[in-house]
# Entry
Amino acid sequence: MSYSDFIKECQENVLSGVGISSDSAAKLFEIPKEYIKELANAANQITREFNGNKVDVEQLNNIKKNSCSEDCSFCGQSAFFDTGIESYQLPSPTEVVSRAQKAKDEGAKSYCLVAAWREPSPKDFSKVCTIIEEVNNKVGISVECSLGFLTYDQAKKLKELNVKRYNHNLETAKSKFAEICTTHTYEDRLRTLQIARDAGLELCTGGIIGLGETQEQRLELVLALAAIYPEEITINILVPVPGTPLELQTPLEKSEIIRMFSVIRFLLPESVIKISGGRETNLDDSGEELLQSGANGIITSGYLTLGGNDADQDIKMIKKIGLEV
Ligand code: SF4
# Structure
């Protein structure tokens, strides 16, 4: 069967609800570069069919920055590396409320509170709960959280506070994980996702590509994500941070980035697939093509340690390609 026919067959299987097997996903990872555009177009049609034209626009608030006890080798916020990135503890609820209001006014549909720590201490967790209550009462935007490892009781509490979705990334393939982090394990991460799901939270999980993983390892990550079937997938593209072990990492080719998003769409037709950090730096179009290759979400107005495009600029981009916010 030709590559074009194989892409079409996979697309029909997804559109008819049959889905594709892991073997087919592996074959999509082997399709030569000159067929990537066809793969991307097929993924785009799947996105439109299952998700319409809406792009999920989210803003982040890094509520506890830097000095993290973990040693993830891509991360500028690890206390193991001297990156010169500023460090701060939890802000006041009033400060977060005003930033959440600004995000809502700028068109964001969700607002994710992110903390750079292994797990919240009981005292910090209680402060975060107060922040969430204040944002709920005063802003009314969908609140999501990324607070590291959680106990079941903490996850339950977040659910009671109407937190919609919990983010906890797998980061990379299981076979690559020990190379990029030694202070916790891949299984620790899977466990947290299970705790969040058991507590009734929706899941957002994904990883970061361009860490020096092989194409097989990117497939491994995609299949692991498909097995979890989260409501949202978030994929970052490495921006090497000076001072980290990956500061000299070679960037991924654009075709491999597009392949990643497209194959995820074939496996997870209904999920939000969000382009996270790295789109402005690694792509010459800020993600315009990816939003037509399987992705249907972006993070706007900057990331945890990096700036990004303004919300206005991103909303203009979305409308320019005929999509909606
Ligand atoms: S990725 Fe998360 S857990 Fe790892 S060092 Fe950075 S903030 Fe800490």
